[in-house]
Amino acid sequence: MSTWYECKVRYQKMDQNGKEKKVNEPYLVDAVSFTDAEKRINEEMEPYISGEFLVTNIKIANYSELHPNENGDRWFKCKVSYIMLDEEKGTEKKSNTYILIQANDVKEAYEAIEELLHDTVSDYEIPAIAESPIMDVFPFSDGGDKIPENLTPLKEIEEA
C-alpha cells in the first residue's frame, strides 16, 4: 500500500509575460516517511528547477487511490461516499474516501470514477469533483531491473 505525501515546493518561476515570480506549488510523492518524502521530492525536482528551491511543507495526503491517465493534463480530487445500512438503527451511514484522478476536465474525471467503481457491490455517490492544485505525481520507482549491490544475480550462482 502506498503512502502519498503532499510536498509544497517554493521556487522562482517564469510566468507567461517573462517575469519571474515566487510560487509555492504542491507535488505528490510516494514515500515511506516524511524524511524519505523530503529526500524524494528534492531528487525529483532538481532536474526541473534551475536555481534554488525550498520544500516548505510536507503532509500525508488523504487519497485512498490514485489513477493516472497519460492523456490527462490535470489532477482532480474526487470525493466518493459509500453508503452502508446500519441494520440496528435502520439508518444509512456514509463513509467518505478521496480518489485522485488524472483527466482533462471534470466530465472526464467523473466518467473515470464511474468506470473505476462499476463493479463495486456497495452503493455509492460522488458528491464532489474538484480540480486539484497538485502539479505532478512521483510514484515510487525501484530503478527497474537494477539488482541491488548486496545481492548476487541468480544466473551467477547457477554458473558457479
What does this structure look like?
The longest helix is centred in the N-terminal third of the chain and has 12 residues, at 34-45. Strands 3-1-2-8 form a four-stranded mixed beta sheet, with helices on one face. It has a four-stranded mixed beta sheet with strand order 4-6-5-7. Helix content is 19%, strand content 44%. The protein has helices spanning 34-45, 106-117, 154-159; strands at 4-14, 20-30, 53-60, 65-67, 74-86, 91-103, 123-131, 137-138. The chain is elongated. With 160 residues, it is α/β, with parallel strands linked by helices. It folds into two domains: 1-61, Ubiquitin-like (UB roll) (Roll); 63-139, Mth169, Chain: A.
> What is the CA–CA distance across the termini?
38 Å
Rg over C-alpha atoms, rounded to the nearest angstrom: 21 Å
The total count of helices amounts to: 3
Range of helix content: 10-25%
Strand content: 35-45%
| Overall pLDDT level | 87
Look at the structure and give the CATH class of the largest domain.
Alpha Beta
Query: How do the SSEs run, as a string of H and E?
Result: EEHEEEEHEEH
Residue stretches low in confidence (pLDDT < 50, at least 5 long) are: 144-158
CATH architecture of the largest domain: 2-Layer Sandwich
Identify the strand order in the major beta sheet: 3-1-2-8
- Indicate how many domains the architecture comprises: 2
Structural class: alpha/beta
